[in-house]
Amino acid sequence: MALRTAEVNMSIDVELTDLAYGGDAVGRYEGRVLFVPGGIPGERVRVEIVEERRGHARANLLEILRPSPERVEPAFPELTNSGCQWQHIAYPAQLTWKAHIVRGLLVRIGKQPDALVHPTIGMPAQIQPWHYRNYAVFTVSSAGEIGFKLMESHDVQDLDECGLLHPALDQVYQLVRHKLMDYFGDTLGEMLQSVTIRGAIGAVSSTVAGMASSSIKAVPTLLILNARPGSMIENPHQLAQELMTIAPGIVGVIIERVGGRYGRVFVGQEYLTDVVLGRRFRISADSFFQVNPIQTSVLVEQAMGMLDPQRSEVVLDGYSGVGLFSTFLASQASRVIAVESQPSAVMDARAGSTLNNQNNITPLEGTLERILSQLHYRRERIDLALVDPPRAGCHPKALQALQTMAPRAICYVSCDPSTLARDIATLCAGNRYRLVAAQPVDMFPQTYHIECVALLVRVGTK
User: Fold this and answer.
1) Are 428 and 111 in contact (CB under 8 A)?
2) pLDDT tens digits, residue range 170-206?
3) Which end of the chain is more exposed for a tag (fewer CB within 10 A), N or C?
4) Same fold: 5-71 with 135-274
5) Which residues on neighbouring strands pair with residue 273, listed in sequence order?
6) CA distance 195 to 225
7) Where are the domains of the chain?
8) Other CB atoms closer than 10 Å to residue 33's CB: what's the count?
9) Dist. CA 103–CA 115, nearest whole Å
């Protein structure tokens, strides 16, 4: 029976049975799937239906009639509607549900009915799963609020502090926030569009998430301000100079779009040097790097353990960024071909090769599908491949080229299990590759986002 229009805005009691990728709990009403933000499977709840679509409806949680034993009090309730959708779920349960979601997507979308998904590797038990990020973008509203955008909204949740940023960077954020509010006053929302904070946590090895504020050490930090289009910041160089001294650890301040789309002012450095498992990486302001330094080491170790490159092999690192995986692959393989389309990341990767005294990495700038086509034309060999695409997954032509190049194994690192499952279905079509296993790694505690490492081997390979 389909929901009638009159049923929108009515309240009903529902049994919740599952969690969906996207963060919502799932129940059923009159044969239709019902998505309920803030719920937990096993709970009986009272909800208000707020939206109906063909095949499903959405509802707001009104009352918890029978709570789950996995329900906890949110540590930072102000972050619930701006990204931390799962902080009402006990952390061990978050890990269990993430593995469950990955397996469900691999079965349904990836067409892998026997998919082996290992338990999610969470943050170390001695560390609270908060204050783990080395990077955050704070939006500045037209009213001068500074914080995170609310989900499905242009409104901004004003934040005096940030429970996701590493403690040293949270201190920087609080000081910078007050400085900008004092500097611009009522015109803050007219002048700035966003504030980005990026820190090199690994460069100061004793700084870990969850440490007491009295023992927090400053970390090298980049501060990037984006001017609002059409604004005219008076003397931006002076502002940058003042921000350099506002908090310990700030090594560079960049103000983008000053006086127009392409204007740029910077003081100090335009990049950071971070450390992962003893290797050094240059990270420019525009380059991507993993946001959870503790779990980044785990991610690298898992990928390297799965792929297991041999000294005689040539390895492809697709969507290679600043060279995170290339650096570790190069220590075991004969040669690494690193393919990245973002110019700043390619420059960082080349600088990283020098920092780590490695001469067997070949960084190539361009899209993966184009570079693979060129490699195939030149009849170059690829024995193993690692790909770490953005959330949208691999380009279809890149997948086709990978199948043509036929490496003996492919390690797929993904931040979106739905596109991971889609691409695995493509790679395994025609019985060319088979999925060995998938390993979720919790890079994003308190959120529904899931990082995953999957290994595929060519059919017929031992």
Assistant:
1) yes
2) 999 999 999 999 999 999 999 999 999 999 999 986 5
3) C
4) yes
5) 282
6) 5
7) 5-71, 101-123+292-458, 135-274
8) 15
9) 7
Q: Are 117 and 438 in contact (CB under 8 A)?
A: yes
Kindly list the strands in the beta sheet with 156-158, ordered across the sheet, starting from the edge strand earlier in the chain. 156-158, 146-149, 135-140, 192-199, 221-227, 250-256, 264-268
User: Which tokens hold the place of 368?
Assistant: 């993966």
Q: Fill in the amino acid letter for 320.
A: S
Q: Degrees (nearest 5) of the Cα angle 360, 366, 369?
A: 100
The CATH fold assigned to 101-123+292-458 is Rossmann fold (3.40.50)
State how far the Cα of 277 lies from the Cα of 328, in Å rounded to an integer.
9
Residue whose C-alpha is closest to residue 59's, from 25, 91, 30: 25
The span from the CA of 309 to the CA of 314, in Å, is: 8
CA distances from 439 to 164, 202, 263, 303 (A): 24, 24, 43, 9
Q: Which residue did the predictor score with more confidence, 264 or 197?
A: 197
Structural contact between residues 236 and 225, judged by C-beta atoms closer than 8 angstroms:
no
Paired residues of 351 in beta bridges: none
DSSP state of 228: P
The pair of structure tokens assigned to 253 is 């301040």
218 CB-near residues (< 8 Å, 6+ apart):
168, 204, 247, 248, 249
CA-angle at 90, arms to 86 and 95, nearest 5°: 75
**Residues forming a β-bridge with 340:** 365
Q: How far apart are CA 355 and CA 377, in angstroms?
A: 32
- CATH architecture type of domain 135-274: Beta Barrel (2.40)
pTM of the model: 0.93
> For the CA atoms of 147, 152, 155, 157, what is the dihedral angle to 10 degrees?
-30
In DSSP terms, which residues pair with 409 in a beta bridge?
384, 457
Please tell me whether 290 is known to bind a ligand.
yes
Tell me: domain 5-71, CATH 2.40.50.140, correct? yes
Q: Strand 25-29 vs strand 44-53: parallel, antiparallel, or unpaired?
A: unpaired
Handedness of CA 430, 431, 433, 436 (dihedral sign): positive
- The pLDDT tens digits of the residues spanning 132-163 come to 999 999 999 999 999 999 988 889 999 999 99
Return the active site residues.
415
Query: Is 365 among the annotated ligand-binding positions?
Result: no
Q: Where does 142-263 show beta strands of DSSP type E?
A: 146-149, 156-158, 192-199, 221-227, 250-256
The response to whether 43 counts as a known ligand-binding position is no
Is 340 annotated to bind ligand? Answer: yes
